[in-house]
Amino acid sequence: MRKQRWLALTFLLGASVAIAQSLSEMRLTPAEIRNTGGGESQIGSSKVLGVKSRVLFGDPAKAGFYSILLFVPEHTTIQAHSHRDNRMATVVSGNWQFGYGARFDEKALKLLPPGSVYSEPGGTNHFARTTDEPVVVHICGYGPTDTLYVDSKDDPALKKK
After folding, report:
1. 8 Å CB contact between 66 and 142
2. Please, are residues 127 and 78 in contact by the beta-carbon 8 Å criterion?
C-alpha cells in the first residue's frame, strides 16, 4: 500500500513538473491585452458574431487546463447557455453584465467592472451583455469545453447552417 502511494505521489509530482515546464513566460498589461484584438478564434466562447477568443495556454477542445481571453464587442447580448467544464473568469476591461439562469433576464444581471471575478460552474446556465464599450474577460477551465444553448434557436452555430 505504501509503495502505491509513493508511486502515485511520484507520478503527480512528475506531471506537475511537466506542466510547469511547458508554460512559457508571459506578462501582459490590460492595455496590451486589449491591443491583441482577439484573433479569429471563437474556441471556448459563446459563438456569437463578433465575439473572439485568444488561447493563452492549453487547448480548450482537448482534455487539460486551458486559459483564454474572450473579446466581446459593445452592445452584445449572449443568451443563456452552459459549458460542460467548470470555469473561472476575471474581467480585464470594460463593464461586463453577467447573470445565471435558464433564460436571459435583465433583472438577474450583475455589473462586473474590471477586476471582478466570477464562476461558470459546469452545466450551469448563464448569460451576459455588454453596453457601450467592449469587454475583455480572462477565462480558465479544464477542457474539453463546449457551449450548449438552453434554446437551440439562440445558438449562433446553428443559425449559420
Report:
1. yes
2. yes
Predicted confidence band at 24 (pLDDT cuts at 50, 70, 90)? confident
27-160 classified as CATH 3.40.50.9100? no
| AA letter at 10 | T
Residue 95 has pLDDT above 90, yes or no: yes
Kindly tell me if the per-residue pLDDT of 21 is higher than 60.
no
> Which residue blocks in the chain are alpha helix, DSSP H?
2-22, 30-35, 156-160
Q: Please report, to the nearest 10 degrees, the dihedral formed by the alpha carbons of residues 33, 34, 37, 41 taken in order.
A: 60
Here the cell at position 123 is: 452545466
Nearest-angstrom CA–CA distance, 81 and 125: 5
